[in-house]
Amino acid sequence: MDPTPEGHRLDGRRALVTGGASGIGAACARELAARGAHVTVADVDGDGAQAVAEEVGGEAWVADLSDTQALDGLRLDTDVLVNNAGIQRVSPIQDFVPNDFRLVHRIMLEAPFLLVRAALPGMYERGWGRVINVSSVHGLVASPFKAAYVSAKHGLEGLSKVTALEGGEHGVTSVCVNPGYVRTPLVEKQIAEQARVHGIPESEVLAKVMLEQAAVKRLVEPHEVASLVGWLTGPDGAMVSGASWAIDGGWSAR
């Protein structure tokens, strides 16, 4: 029996989730598919994208979002766009590799802009659309050694608000979801870098860096983020636009 309440489903709707091969993206693909959407799973990892797409009865799009010029002329036929793809680089500003900074911004700010730009005409034509930007607590506050990530997420917050203002009269909402550290491969890959820049053992990174600011001392689970994304696509989220929804265990309350 389908547990999704009547009226909260996405039957007949199309959804696109970037970074959908693992972590938050894969969880969002599962959530939206469970609500009835046909999901396109976009990721640079073609095998991973195909595996998730087959699981949810959707399709895979092998996309390198760092090649932003390839997206300039793109047009997307999607009702729900989840901008989730991301990478991380951890380094003091004076040592930050300039091309790493540019890469983070291409994937996490330029590509979302171009995907929104590609999706809005169809959403406007249908009079309905949902843009969900998976931001971060780092879209609201900063941490040292993350100049590229923090600035890209702050930019994504601004993009989301402008999209909300322009899209409102066309039935399109735009929001940011702002998790703290989530139990994903992206977070796991940071541990060694965080230990290096903070000068602590890897075994201490979780407690002393990742969870230090949070009131609830655990990682966020991907399905918790996806559940919020699912709710925001439903009718009860229709008046939620231009907002940032923290799911960070109280981190941003400081």
Automatic annotation (TrEMBL):
InterPro entries: NAD(P)-bd_dom_sf, Sc_DH/Rdtase_CS, SDR, SDR_fam. Its EC number is 1.1.1.30. GO terms for molecular function: 3-hydroxybutyrate dehydrogenase activity. Gene3D superfamilies: NAD(P)-binding Rossmann-like Domain. PROSITE patterns: ADH_SHORT. The keyword Protease does not apply. SUPFAM superfamilies: NAD(P)-binding Rossmann-fold domains. Keywords: Oxidoreductase. It is an enzyme of class 1 (oxidoreductase). Pfam families: adh_short. Belongs to the short-chain dehydrogenases/reductases (SDR) family. PANTHER family: 3-OXOACYL-(ACYL-CARRIER-PROTEIN) REDUCTASE, 3-OXOACYL-[ACYL-CARRIER-PROTEIN] REDUCTASE FABG. This is 3-hydroxybutyrate dehydrogenase. It comes from Promicromonospora iranensis. The lineage of its organism: Bacteria, Bacillati, Actinomycetota, Actinomycetes, Micrococcales.
